[in-house]
């Protein structure tokens, strides 16, 4: 039996979900003077991601998005229900601009090498991934071509396979000379676990200024006799909270270009992005409850009046004028599959593609239906953004984080226009 609420909180907007779309929407809304709360069961998928912002690898028809602006025009004419057809190209660029401003303001600088074309970033497996916004320290194919590159692994750290990366990159970048070296970090002999170093453990050691000097000394020792290297690739563990200073110190000490390659989850690069977004929300005094589960909503006619959330043995009722559903897909719990049926459990939202039986059948385009303003049909004060939306496949199209940013901005503008007016 569900508990009655212990107490109530009242806000202008309640965002359900703490992934990229939810956190981004909350920051936009709060900066516009609205009282915003975010509720979620955990910290979302951002923290386990590579930190890249993929916009569009290919259209739903499988045609490569060589020119992103042209690809958006195709989506607008041929796939009118696609989230990008509702936001448009300019909305995405505006969202990216704000994202770049937000992250740089928190010391986490991103790059957009081209406005209308993707770049190719090195993945944890040594493959090349089409993406649009990348952390400043990320390794790109363009900076590796025609260079002598050394992949520097860390002894005792098992989430970075230098041999695999070398083999794959050698096939993809034939003009690049790729070598391997291994550094032995201080404390390696004291490792007790067969699992070796953890990504966060190394990153936090780099954050400590005294430890940093010892770690960098170990990196320099590993590169002794390899002074011809023009680029060094390291796993993405160069600091968590003080990453810019760590990256700068490593480059200055080694005397060459140094870039990071993503590691297997948990991802330090993803945690940096999550922490940057959360820092913005903390500064803006956004209410965050990231240890709860939305269990029911109060629906009266065409409006939602409240959402009850359960966590830590109590139920809290959040009343708001507007609600943004950014709860993710089936992995994030925003959609539920039961008895060969997929549904949205909090508001009972209508879905697109709902007749397709199961996510196990790879019908990833099932999601919440929305109108052109991203409002959920049947409600006047509920919108949706991010992965919970339907009519697109973020995996095959390579567009998950781009859709998250663009739809978060559009939903936020819709709310703002109505709330202030």
Automatic annotation (TrEMBL):
Q: GO MF annotations for this entry? A: glycerol-3-phosphate dehydrogenase (quinone) activity
What are the FAD-dependent oxidoreductase 2 FAD-binding domain coordinates in residue numbering? 12-403
Q: Which GO terms describe its cellular component?
A: glycerol-3-phosphate dehydrogenase (FAD) complex
Tell me which InterPro entries the record gives.
Answer: FAD-dep_OxRdtase_2_FAD-bd (IPR003953), FAD/NAD-bd_sf (IPR036188), G3P_DH_GlpB_su (IPR009158)
Q: Which UniProt keywords apply?
A: Flavoprotein, FMN, Oxidoreductase
Its Enzyme Commission number(s) read: 1.1.5.3
Q: Which SUPFAM superfamilies match?
A: FAD/NAD(P)-binding domain
Which EC class is the enzyme in? oxidoreductase
Name a Pfam family for this protein. Answer: FAD_binding_2
Q: What is this protein called?
A: Anaerobic glycerol-3-phosphate dehydrogenase subunit B
Gene name, per UniProt, is: glpB
């Amino acid at each position: 039996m569900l508990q009655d609420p212990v107490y109530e909180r009242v806000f202008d907007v309640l965002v359900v979900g703490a992934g990229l779309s939810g956190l981004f929407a909350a920051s936009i809304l709060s900066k516009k003077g609205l009282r915003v709360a975010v509720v979620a069961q955990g910290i979302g998928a951002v923290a386990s991601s590579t930190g890249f912002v993929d916009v569009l690898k290919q259209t739903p028809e499988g045609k490569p998005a060589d020119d992103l602006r042209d690809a958006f025009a195709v989506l607008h004419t041929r796939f009118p229900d696609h989230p990008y057809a509702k936001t448009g190209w300019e909305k995405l660029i505006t969202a990216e601009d704000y994202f770049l401003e937000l992250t740089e303001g928190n010391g986490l600088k991103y790059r957009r090498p081209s406005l209308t074309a993707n770049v190719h970033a090195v993945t944890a497996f040594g493959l090349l991934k089409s993406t649009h916004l990348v952390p400043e320290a990320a390794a790109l194919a363009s900076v590796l071509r025609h260079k002598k590159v050394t992949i520097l692994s860390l002894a005792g750290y098992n989430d970075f396979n230098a041999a695999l990366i070398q083999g794959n990159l050698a096939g993809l970048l034939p003009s690049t000379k790729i070598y391997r070296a291994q550094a032995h970090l201080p404390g390696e002999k004291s490792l007790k676990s067969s699992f070796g170093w953890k990504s966060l453990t190394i990153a936090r050691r780099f954050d400590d200024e005294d430890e940093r000097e010892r770690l960098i000394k170990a990196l320099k020792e590993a590169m002794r006799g390899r002074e011809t290297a023009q680029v060094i690739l390291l796993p993405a563990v160069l600091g968590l909270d003080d990453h810019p200073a760590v990256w700068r110190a490593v480059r200055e000490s080694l005397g060459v270009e140094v870039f990071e390659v993503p590691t297997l989850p948990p991802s330090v690069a993803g945690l940096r992005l999550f922490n940057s977004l959360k820092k913005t929300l903390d500064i803006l005094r956004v209410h965050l409850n990231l240890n709860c589960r939305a269990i029911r909503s109060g629906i009266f006619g065409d409006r939602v009046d409240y959402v009850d959330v359960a966590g830590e043995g109590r139920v809290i009722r959040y009343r708001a004028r507007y609600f943004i559903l950014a709860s993710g897909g089936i992995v994030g719990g925003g959609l539920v599959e039961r008895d060969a049926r997929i549904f949205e459990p909090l508001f009972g939202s209508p879905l697109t593609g709902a007749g397709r039986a199961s996510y196990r059948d790879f019908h990833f385009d099932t999601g919440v239906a929305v109108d052109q303003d991203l409002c959920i049909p049947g409600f006047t004060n509920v919108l949706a953004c991010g992965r919970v939306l339907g009519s697109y496949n973020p995996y095959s199209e390579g567009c998950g984080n781009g859709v998250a940013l663009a739809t978060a901005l559009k939903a936020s503008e819709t709310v703002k226009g109505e709330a202030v007016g």
